[in-house]
Design a protein that fits this description.
Largest sheet: 4 strands, mixed
CATH class of the largest domain: Alpha Beta
Protein name: Integrase zinc-binding domain-containing protein
Shape: elongated
Strand content: 15-25%
CATH architecture of the largest domain: 2-Layer Sandwich
Strand order of the largest sheet: 10-9-8-11
Bound molecules: zinc ion
Pfam families: Integrase_H2C2, Peptidase_A17
CATH topology of the largest domain: Nucleotidyltransferase, domain 5
Distance between the termini: 82 Å
Order of helices and strands: EEHEHHEHHEHEHHEHHHEEEHE
Number of helices: 12
Helix content: 25-40%
């Protein structure tokens, strides 16, 4: 079995800046034995002509069409009168000539022909080429963008409406690999953040991690993440004792305390947090201000609490 395909790109120019987007693509499966290579290529040229007819009807504006083929034979054939060939070839030449009579045909080298992916299959194309086409393929028909809750944010249109990428799809993988290389083999968190500026890969976290794990360069360098060296806990943190036997103290705040009297302005206060070392039980005491006297008053209230204390 073999396949052939055609794709249509739209090139627009505004203020001297041009943009190229893939408009649509179509492929057909053919029996290899039944058709010679030039006949397959001729069928591809006809497919392109038919794609143009459909696009012309759908497009709401005028544009000139340029047709490209990587087959020199086909390009030579369609310049000849159809009657000189057998039925199969002449029928197709006639149709192509009819549809594309006002258009120009050009030659494109096979290695630069994006339709090559359509006909040979994605797996047969080198990763560099895949990455190059990845951006263009995101404009295929299945592309859906999602609207989040950031419509009013001061962000790019692409970030506000990321393109939905299907799970476990070769195109999604190619885009992830492309970004992974672009951002110098970074980790999954950084890669995901970079991707989400433009795309929304479904089940992204897992897929990104699996792509990164397969990266040979990353595996070779084996980056080691830095880890904290944890010290031993002090004895009074790990030995059994009655609650509040060993206690730490700190302040939190400030807070505003509103008195019951209506016309009195709320006044500042703090909270002393007494934490038991061994059980982590906490006792809170309100402190009026940051003076020593206030602290001692809070401490007295704490000591008045039943139990024996050893304060740190
Ligand atoms: Zn890598």
């Amino acid at each position: 079995m073999s396949a052939y395909g055609a794709c249509l790109y739209l090139r627009s120019e505004t203020n001297g800046e041009s943009k190229v987007h893939l408009l649509c693509a179509k492929s057909r499966v053919a029996l290899l034995k039944a058709l010679t290579i030039p006949r397959l290529e001729l069928s591809a040229a006809l497919l392109l002509a038919e794609l143009i007819v459909n696009a012309e009807e759908a497009l709401d504006f005028d544009c000139t069409f340029h047709c490209w083929s990587d087959s020199s034979i086909v390009l030579a054939w369609i310049r000849q009168p159809p009657r000189e060939f057998n039925v199969f070839v002449s029928n197709r030449i006639a149709k192509i000539q009819e549809i594309t009579k006002d258009m120009t045909w050009h030659h494109v080298p096979t290695n630069l022909n994006p339709a090559d992916v359509v006909s040979r299959g994605w797996q047969a194309v080198s990763t560099e080429k895949q990455a190059g086409f990845a951006w263009a393929y995101t404009w295929l028909r299945w592309v859906t963008s999602i609207g989040g809750r950031l419509q009013n944010a001061n962000l790019d249109y692409d970030t506000r409406n990321p393109i939905l990428l299907p799970k476990d799809h070769p195109v999604t993988k190619a885009i992830i690999v492309y970004y992974h290389k672009k951002y110098l083999h970074g980790g999954s968190q950084a890669l995901l953040a970079a991707l989400r500026q433009r795309y929304w890969p479904i089940g992204g976290r897992k897929f990104v991690a699996s792509v990164i794990n397969k990266c040979v360069r990353r595996f070779r360098t084996k980056p080691v993440t830095w880890e904290h060296v944890m010290g031993s806990l002090p004895a009074n943190r790990v030995q059994p004792n009655p609650a509040f036997h060993s206690t730490g103290v700190d302040y939190c705040g400030s807070f505003y305390h509103k008195t019951e009297a209506r016309n009195k302005a709320p006044h500042k206060c703090y909270i002393a947090v007494f934490v038991c070392f061994s059980t982590k039980a906490a006792l809170l005491e309100v402190v009026q201000d940051l003076t020593t006297d206030s602290f001692i008053a809070a401490l007295r209230r704490f000591i008045a609490f039943p139990g024996g204390f050893q304060l740190h």
